[in-house]
Design goal:
By secondary structure, the chain is an alpha/beta fold. It has eight helices and ten strands. Strand 6, helix 5 (176-185) and strand 7 form a beta-alpha-beta unit.
Length: 285
């Protein structure tokens, strides 16, 4: 079955790094890669407040620059990776906001995964993820997202950390991409629970822990507990101490780990600057 994967790009080095990461991660899979550039997002200054339309000078200038940029990206892929029998590429340039373009492409082409680059720490406020990346992780809930930091190495993950507080009723289909990646790379999963003090799991948490164990029964996995009153620091230390290659969690609005994606907390999560993160989404019953 062919996977349909969306690769947004702004033609930067970190965007190309994410594309190379995607190609390496799915090198043995049949994939259609949709490389998207929304040229409205690239800082073009309009001569008026009117929205340019096809045929107008500003639109055509921006459109040509976007198309040329996509063709250059494609040629870089071919030059670096060479032709692939199981990979095909569709180059898409659109005058639109990035989120809106992504939503339409997901619906039109049945996109099942988004992989995009992040800029890393680039300014005085130490913003690790750009606003576009955070918006996609929070707002696009119909498919998972892999965010690849600028400093991430293009290599297959051998250890994936899955932080959880065991409070979410997890379904196996929510974990399908995590299971697929672990299987294809033969990575081990480290299920991490951070507690403030020596607190025992409640009945619901025990039940959810057993469900997780069942979901990962065919994958090399282990359970880990850290006592720390700062969950974010604990996760970071765990990943750094083990040189883990990826972190994944289920995003649920209003849940504890869902709140990781809020902008103030994004700035504090040091592992985001080094390790790709796979954001899964909780599915309502």
């Amino acid at each position: 079955m062919t996977k349909k994967i969306l690769l947004p790009t702004d033609f930067s080095k970190h965007a190309l790094n994410a594309i190379n990461y995607a190609l390496e991660l799915f090198k043995n899979d049949n994939c259609e890669f949709y490389i998207l550039n929304t040229f409205r997002e690239n800082g073009y200054v309009l001569e008026s407040m009117m929205v340019p339309e096809p045929g107008e000078r500003l639109y055509e200038i921006a459109k040509k620059e976007a198309d040329d940029g996509l063709e250059k990206v494609f040629q870089q892929i071919i030059a670096t990776k060479g032709p692939s029998e199981n990979h095909s590429f569709k180059l898409i340039s659109q005058f639109n906001f990035l989120i809106e373009s992504i939503k339409k492409l997901i619906e039109k082409h049945d996109i099942e995964l988004i992989i995009m680059g992040t800029k890393g720490i680039t300014n005085a406020s130490r913003t690790i993820y750009g606003s576009n990346t955070v918006d996609i992780m929070e707002q696009i809930k119909v498919c998972p997202t892999i965010a690849v930091p600028a400093k991430a190495t293009v290599k297959l993950p051998k250890e994936i950390v899955f932080p959880t507080d065991y409070k979410i009723d997890i379904k196996k289909k929510e974990l399908s991409y995590l299971i697929d990646i672990a299987n294809k790379t033969k990575a081990s999963l480290k299920i991490l629970h951070v507690v403030d003090g020596n607190k025992k799991l409640k009945n619901k948490q025990i039940t959810n822990q057993k469900l997780i164990q069942e979901c990962f029964e065919k994958i090399d996995h282990s359970f880990h507990v850290l006592e720390n009153d700062d969950t974010h620091s604990a996760i970071t230390c765990f990943i750094e101490s083990r040189n883990s290659d990826m972190v994944s969690f289920i995003h649920k609005k209003h849940s504890f780990f869902g709140s990781i994606l809020s902008r103030p907390l994004v700035k504090t999560l040091g592992f985001h600057s080094q390790v790709p993160i796979l954001v899964l989404h909780h599915q309502k019953n």
